[in-house]
């Protein structure tokens, strides 16, 4: 396969970063992108509501809610990408990070199990 000459590479680069071309591509995708974003935000809002209920049941002070919510947002992101044992292992790694930030293990375990349904990984 022949190598593209430099002038063709520069032309392709210029076309790819032409503001009008980018605008046209974005306009074509905008409706789908917006629909995905709306769905994701609705899912995340519902998740945060469930998390707050669980945190209340554990008697967690409201001043620490943001940290627990950030833990859950991170898990949510992983749960959209991974499943089963891979997700369980990723969840434990994330939990260790947040435990190092002095969040309580029993609360993190509860969030992982009750909100996400993530079981401990099998060895």
Written overview of the protein:
The protein has 123 residues and is an all-alpha fold. It has one domain (6-115): Methane Monooxygenase Hydroxylase, Chain G, domain 1 (Up-down Bundle), CATH 1.20.58. It contains five helices and no strands. The chain has helices spanning 6-16, 19-57, 65-79, 84-100, 105-115. Helix 2 (19-57) crosses helix 3 (65-79) and helix 2 packs across helix 5 (105-115). The protein is elongated, with a radius of gyration of 22 Å. The relative contact order is 0.10. The model has no long low-confidence stretch (mean pLDDT 93).
The CATH class assignment is Mainly Alpha
Give the number of helices: 5
Assign the CATH topology: Methane Monooxygenase Hydroxylase, Chain G, domain 1
Strand content: under 5%
Relative helix content = over 70%
The number of E-state strands comes to 0
What distance separates the N and C termini?
A: 48 Å
Any low-confidence stretches, pLDDT <50, length ≥5?
A: none
- How many discrete structural domains? 1
What value does the Rg take, in angstroms?
22 Å
Structural class: mainly alpha
Which architecture name does CATH use? Up-down Bundle
**How would a textbook summarize the main sheet?**
none
C-alpha geometry: elongated
Q: What's the mean pLDDT score? A: 93
Helix-strand sequence:
HHHHH
């Amino acid at each position: 396969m022949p190598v593209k000459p430099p002038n063709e590479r520069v032309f392709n680069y210029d076309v790819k970063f032409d503001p009008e071309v980018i605008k046209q591509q974005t306009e074509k995708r905008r409706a789908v992108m917006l629909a995905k974003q709306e769905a994701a935000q609705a899912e995340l809002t519902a998740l945060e509501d469930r998390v707050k209920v669980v945190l209340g049941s554990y008697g967690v002070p409201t001043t620490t809610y943001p940290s627990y919510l950030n833990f859950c947002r991170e898990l949510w992101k992983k749960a959209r990408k991974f499943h089963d044992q891979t997700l369980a292992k990723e969840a434990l790694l994330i939990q260790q990070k947040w435990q190092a930030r002095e969040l309580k293990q029993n609360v993190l375990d509860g969030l992982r199990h009750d909100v996400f349904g993530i079981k401990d990984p099998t060895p």
